[in-house]
Amino acid sequence: MTNETFRKLEDYMLECMKDSAHDKEHIYRVLYSALDIASKDENVDYDVLISACLLHDIAREDQNKTPSLCHAEVGAEKAYEFLTENGFDESFAEKVKHCISSHRFRKNNPPESTEAKILFDADKIDVAGTMGIARTLVYQGAMAEPLYSVLPDGRVSDGTDDKIPSFFQEYKYKLEKIYSRFYTVRGKEIAEERRKTAESFYNDMLNEVTSTYDNGISLLKDIIK
């Protein structure tokens, strides 16, 4: 890939990134993690991989404005259109499109190509560890979602089986499970290096909130007659 081509892709990406949890620095981290993973594999098309990494979240704003949309699907179409309109051949654009359309954790559309699997893993690495915790909190704050939910009996829910979005719900639904979803050996290695800090943060926060509620409810009962 030439420097000119990289800058063209990068400039388009920069025009699209509006979400603080999915900003340009997220894109660069995914790209750099993908290159780390790819360095352990001899059969990688770097032009496809770099293009897919740079463009994988270009439809985040579309999804934020219209939650029924899937940013992976919309982004894949936008990337294909951009590439074909800017001199890339259709077969190349199709490969990039597949990578982007299959990178989302919540969709039942698993990656098939080597480059798609690397993008998936690199994107999920940025959900692992303390970075994943921080990005989740930033995103949920922007969406005005709570840190946790309270059960009908007044106890704090740990997020298991919650239907209402919250940080605890997102941790149990996605962040806790992410470590078993990697396709590459190197991706899993990087994620596992980060796992302990994420688990510790969640458990410490849950213990703090739970003890506050349990103790406070007991004290309040003694006062309110």
What is the highest CATH level, the class of the largest domain?
A: Mainly Alpha
Question: Based on helices, strands and strand pairing, what is the structural class?
Answer: mainly alpha
User: What is the typical, i.e. mean, pLDDT?
Assistant: 93
Radius of gyration: 20 Å
- Helix count from the secondary structure assignment: 10
Residue stretches low in confidence (pLDDT < 50, at least 5 long) are none
Report how far apart the termini are.
74 Å
Q: CATH fold name of the largest domain, please?
A: Hypothetical protein af1432
Shape descriptor reads elongated
CATH architecture of the largest domain: Orthogonal Bundle
Number of strands: 0
The domain count comes to 2
Helix content: 55-70%
Would you kindly provide a written description of the structure presented here, covering whatever features stand out?
With 225 residues, the chain is mainly alpha-helical. The protein folds into two domains: 1-123, Hypothetical protein af1432; 127-225, Methane Monooxygenase Hydroxylase, Chain G, domain 1. 65% of the residues lie in helices and 0% in strands. It contains ten helices and no strands. The chain has helices at 3-16, 24-38, 46-55, 60-65, 71-85, 90-101, 114-125, 129-142, 167-175, 185-223. The longest helix is centred in the last third of the chain and has 39 residues, at 185-223. The chain is elongated, with a radius of gyration of 20 Å. The model has no long low-confidence stretch (mean pLDDT 93).
